[in-house]
């Protein structure tokens, strides 16, 4: 038998009106009651009728998501969380993989009556999208956006804190010769992680061994490690701008018989799945995808339902995960 809203109300011990308010993203529901309803929905595997809700509300029941790639375990985890949370509220997630180079006005998701709202995950050329979204009156939320000027409706990671935490961890272990391998300058995360890293070193009166710019990929870390080996000079510690760079660097060092972390300590960023699978297990900064996805979905639902009149940005702290790739000098 199909589960109904009445079953959810009975399971949660709350009224049908309260359940309905939770499903519609109303801001008037107390948080503990909201959680009881969501727990009941999950346990009963309740799915609101999208067709009925669409007829009643005049909405499509679809949320659009534009992302530059899904070949990234952090993005993948955020998308999974978004999909689960929005499904609990009766929405389907329509995903588009796009670099944004074509401009927002040409994107098929940004058309009249296509979606009830849109999420941009780590967008490039975000201004193109926002101009059109605002013109068409489509509620939106940005995740990991590049421009601070667009933070009005956004969920971001405090990457300055992340870079500072990575450098502080290495400094506390006694390292003073520390390099930073960072991603492309177009990314806000690159600039912020480097800023936090430099701040921690400057507080100790230190200069970085080297700052290397490149792409967020394994090849960048590998090539840098090979260059250092050819030049016959190595730092004692490295803060890599993401886990891919860190893994590439470790591969180059270990191929040359350089021990990690005994000779070179390495810290990554993101806590990709592979970070805890390869040896040595990687010390890294975890970006909590569950918190990011939940915060973005909640913000968008409140915008769609008219319960969020003013813009607000949410900054979520990363978490230092200490594993085997770092050790004292």
From TrEMBL:
The record's keywords, sorted A to Z, are: DNA-binding, Transcription, Transcription regulation
Q: Which Pfam families match?
A: LacI, Peripla_BP_3
Q: Which residues form the HTH lacI-type domain?
A: 3-57
SUPFAM superfamilies linked to this entry: lambda repressor-like DNA-binding domains, Periplasmic binding protein-like I
Q: What is the recorded name of this protein?
A: Catabolite control protein A
Species annotation: Paenibacillus auburnensis
């Amino acid at each position: 038998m199909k589960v109904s809203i009445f079953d959810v109300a009975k399971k949660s011990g709350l009224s049908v009106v309260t359940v309905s308010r939770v499903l519609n993203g109303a801001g008037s529901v107390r948080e503990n009651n909201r959680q009881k309803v969501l727990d009941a929905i999950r346990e009963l595997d309740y799915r609101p009728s999208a067709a009925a809700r669409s007829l009643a509300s005049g909405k499509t029941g679809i949320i659009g998501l534009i992302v530059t790639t899904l070949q990234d375990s952090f993005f993948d985890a955020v998308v999974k969380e978004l999909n689960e949370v929005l499904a609990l509220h009766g929405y389907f997630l329509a995903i588009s993989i796009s670099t944004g180079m074509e401009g927002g006005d040409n994107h098929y998701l940004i058309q009249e009556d296509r979606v009830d709202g849109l999420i941009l995950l780590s967008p490039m050329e975000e201004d193109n999208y926002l101009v059109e979204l605002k013109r068409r009156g489509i509620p939106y939320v940005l995740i990991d956006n590049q421009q601070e000027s667009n933070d009005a409706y956004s969920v971001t990671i405090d990457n300055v804190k992340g870079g500072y935490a990575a450098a502080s961890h290495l400094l506390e272990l006694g390292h003073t010769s520390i390099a930073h391998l960072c991603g492309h300058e177009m990314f806000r995360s690159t600039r912020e992680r480097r800023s936090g890293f430099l701040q921690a070193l400057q507080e100790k009166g230190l200069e970085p061994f080297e700052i290397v710019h490149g792409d967020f990929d394994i090849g960048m870390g590998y090539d840098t490690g090979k260059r250092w080996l050819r030049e016959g000079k190595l730092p004692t510690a490295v803060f890599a701008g993401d886990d891919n760079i860190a893994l590439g660097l470790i591969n180059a060092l270990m191929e040359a018989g350089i021990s990690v972390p005994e000779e070179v300590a390495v810290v990554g960023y993101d806590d990709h799945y592979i970070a805890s699978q390869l040896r040595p297990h990687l010390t890294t900064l975890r970006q909590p995808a569950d918190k990011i996805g939940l915060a973005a979905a909640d913000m968008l639902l409140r915008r769609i339902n008219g319960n969020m009149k003013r813009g607000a940005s949410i900054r979520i702290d990363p978490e230092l995960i200490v594993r085997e790739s770092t050790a004292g000098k």
